[in-house]
């Protein structure tokens, strides 16, 4: 069985709850939480477990929050992007940021563009960070190219099929690229985002491949290479 995944999506949820439970300022909680981007990038891309890793940091509606958490999110991601250049370059990882909101501050936009330019030649795999993803915008952009059929539409959408979706605590897709998740396995972590460790990811991967093995054993169709 091939143990390299096409794409993995992670929703880094629970930073606010982590701050409240540990009596921390939001800025500190989001700073710790943003560092899971490096953990996941190392685990899935640098170590060759997946071709694409998608970090769903924000949907487009996240930018409408009114609870004083937006600035800490922006600051934490800006700092994280500035720190990742050397690591991504050393591991030959390509970086891409996607924002449909048009609401991210210039400092974060500049940090994202700088990291994209710095990693253009990365060939070991890709890390994609969603800074304001909109399923509607993704679909409308693909439809604007007048695809002739469903296969033509899928080729114009942002993401290929996603094998594995990971989210702390909740089974909820938060307006992510659901078209790519039709055959994915969703696994929830009984931890908040800032608490996730490498051992948690090892356990998830083993659970995923056990599930895939059972699926292929029980249904010959899933043993076919598509």
Notes on the protein architecture:
This protein has 226 residues and is α/β, with parallel strands linked by helices. The protein has one domain (5-218): 3-Layer(aba) Sandwich (Undecaprenyl pyrophosphate synthetase). The chain has eight helices and six strands. The chain is globular and about 50 Å long. The two termini are 14 Å apart.
The number of distinct β-strands equals 6
Identify the overall geometry. globular
Q: Give the integer mean of the pLDDT values.
A: 93
What is the spatial order of strands in the main beta sheet?
Answer: 3-4-2-1-5-6
- Give the percentage of residues in beta strands: 15-25%
Whole-number count of domains = 1
H/E element sequence: EHHHEHEHEHHEEH
- The CATH architecture designation is 3-Layer(aba) Sandwich
Number of helices: 8
- Unreliable segments of 5+ consecutive residues: none
Helix/sheet category: alpha/beta
The biggest beta sheet reads: 6 strands, parallel
Computed CA radius of gyration, to the nearest angstrom: 18 Å
Termini distance? 14 Å
**CATH homology superfamily:** Decaprenyl diphosphate synthase-like
**Which CATH top level class fits?**
Alpha Beta
Helix content: 40-55%
CATH topology: Undecaprenyl pyrophosphate synthetase
């Amino acid at each position: 069985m091939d143990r390299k995944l096409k794409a993995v999506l992670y929703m880094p949820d629970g930073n606010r709850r982590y701050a409240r439970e540990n009596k921390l300022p939001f800025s500190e909680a989001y700073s710790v939480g943003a560092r899971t981007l490096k953990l996941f990038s190392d685990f899935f891309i640098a170590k060759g477990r997946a071709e694409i890793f998608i970090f769903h940091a924000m949907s487009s509606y996240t930018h409408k929050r009114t609870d004083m958490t937006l600035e800490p999110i922006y600051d934490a991601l800006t700092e994280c992007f500035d720190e990742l250049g050397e690591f991504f370059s050393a591991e030959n990882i390509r970086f891409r940021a996607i924002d449909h909101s048009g609401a991210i501050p210039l400092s974060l936009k500049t940090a994202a563009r700088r990291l994209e330019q710095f990693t253009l030649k990365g060939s070991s795999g890709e890390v994609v960070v969603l800074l304001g993803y909109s399923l509607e915008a993704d679909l409308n952009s693909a439809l604007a190219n007048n695809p002739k059929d469903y296969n033509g539409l899928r080729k114009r959408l942002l993401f290929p099929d996603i094998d594995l979706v990971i989210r702390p605590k909740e089974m909820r897709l938060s307006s992510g690229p659901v078209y790519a998740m039709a055959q994915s396995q969703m696994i929830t972590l009984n931890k908040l985002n800032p608490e996730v460790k490498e051992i948690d990811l090892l356990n998830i991967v083993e659970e995923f491949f056990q599930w895939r093995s059972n699926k292929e054993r029980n249904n010959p169709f899933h043993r076919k290479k598509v």
